[in-house]
UniProtKB/TrEMBL annotation:
Catalytic activity line of the entry: 2 a phenolic donor + H2O2 = 2 a phenolic radical donor + 2 H2O
Residue sites binding Ca(2+) 2 per the record: D245, T248, D253
Biological process annotations from GO: hydrogen peroxide catabolic process; response to oxidative stress; rhythmic process
Keywords, alphabetical: Biological rhythms, Calcium, Disulfide bond, Glycoprotein, Heme, Hydrogen peroxide, Iron, Metal-binding, Oxidoreductase, Peroxidase, Secreted, Signal
Protein name as catalogued: Peroxidase
Top-level taxon of the source organism: Eukaryota
Active site: H68
Signal peptide boundaries: 1-26
Positions marked as site (Transition state stabilizer): R64
Keyword Disulfide bond on entry: yes
Task of the protein: Removal of H(2)O(2), oxidation of toxic reductants, biosynthesis and degradation of lignin, suberization, auxin catabolism, response to environmental stresses such as wounding, pathogen attack and oxidative stress. These functions might be dependent on each isozyme/isoform in each plant tissue.
Length: 327
């Protein structure tokens, strides 16, 4: 009799261990809101589309938000918090220079709150708006973005300067930062392809132009950049910038890699990416094959979006993405 019961007891123990493992390691899932807010992803998609047709640069902002939020500790919408209620906003950091359109996150959140109050996290808005923004930028449709993130109850302003790469950081530093959150070299090269959209302010360019032109820049391209940035001391509040990609400036595509192979990258890391033996083979392959770039970019976005999320009873579901809940 005792021997007959042993398998059952062992089976029950396995079930308990599986339950613990499942709770601790598999909280994010596809279509997390299928019961609590069935239209959540549809609402986010609709709002992203509507905002894009009113303010096209919002799509670029959603992509940048994902990166800045997830590389700092966790994909937990800490980036969206404003300075209030004892929180010091990450948006105050110099690494957040040029970021904008935060006010339109509230438009998306308000639509969700009207449908399903207190249900959909701001962290999932960050992830899903990036996914849908990429589509608006004619990039790949990324199907496997999981949900179920929760929102932080604080910010990490003191960590931003260390964890978010600077405009003149070395490639080794950037690769190390991405590796520390589980993103390999190939996916990192693909994620940097986000530089195919958006723009760089002259403040972050002039060190390559003055007092002498960086010899790694294509000479004709350098003259174009000097025309865009005519002063070595640009006003950070002025609209002085260059597009990352002059050919398809609002399209997520492989033109970025073609440009950097032609020595037409804006940032130091762009040049290093194209010439460093660790990354140059991936750059060449992405420049030659847009489908391969999309495949790796999609994989990189999925990895980035799953960085150390808060789940279960961790954190909270903010009522307003700008502030921690008061209760």
């Amino acid at each position: 009799m005792a021997n007959a019961k042993m398998p059952l007891a062992f089976f029950c123990l396995l079930l308990q261990l599986f339950s613990i493992f499942h709770i601790g390691n598999a909280e994010l899932e596809m279509n997390y809101y299928r019961e609590s807010c069935p239209r959540a992803e549809e609402i986010i998609r609709q709002q992203v589309e509507t905002l894009y047709y009113k303010h096209g640069n919002t799509a670029v902002s959603w992509l940048r938000n994902l990166f800045h939020d997830c590389v700092v500790k966790s994909c937990d919408a800490s980036l969206l918090l404003e300075t209030a209620r004892g929180v010091e906003s990450e948006q105050k950091s110099t690494r957040s220079f040029g970021m904008r359109n935060f006010k339109y996150v509230k438009v998306i959140k308000d639509a969700l709150e009207k449908e399903c109050p207190g249900t959909v996290s701001c962290a999932d808005i960050v992830a899903l708006s990036a996914r849908d923004g990429i589509v608006m930028l004619k990039g790949p449709k990324i199907d496997m973005i999981k949900t179920g993130r929760r929102d932080s109850r604080g910010s990490y302003l003191n960590d931003v300067e260390t964890l978010v790469p600077n405009h003149n950081d070395s490639l080794s530093s950037v690769l190390s930062n991405f590796n520390s959150i589980g993103i390999d070299v190939e996916a990192t090269v693909a994620l940097l392809g986000a530089h195919s959209v958006g723009r760089v302010h002259c403040v972050n360019l002039v060190h390559r132009l003055y007092p002498t032109i960086d010899p790694t820049l294509d000479p004709n391209y350098a003259l174009y950049l000097k025309n865009r940035c005519p002063s070595p001391t640009p006003d950070p509040n002025a609209v002085l910038y260059s597009r990352n990609d002059r050919e398809t400036p609002m399209v997520v595509d492989n033109m970025y890699y073609k440009n950097i192979m032609a020595r037409k990258g804006l940032l130091v890391i762009d040049d290093e990416l194209a010439t460093d033996p660790r990354t140059a083979p991936f750059v060449a392959k992405m420049a030659a094959n847009n489908g391969y770039f999309y495949e790796q970019f999609s994989r990189g976005v999925r990895l980035l979006s799953e960085t150390n999320p808060l789940t279960g009873d961790q954190g909270e579901i903010r009522k307003d993405c700008r502030f921690v809940n008061s209760n």
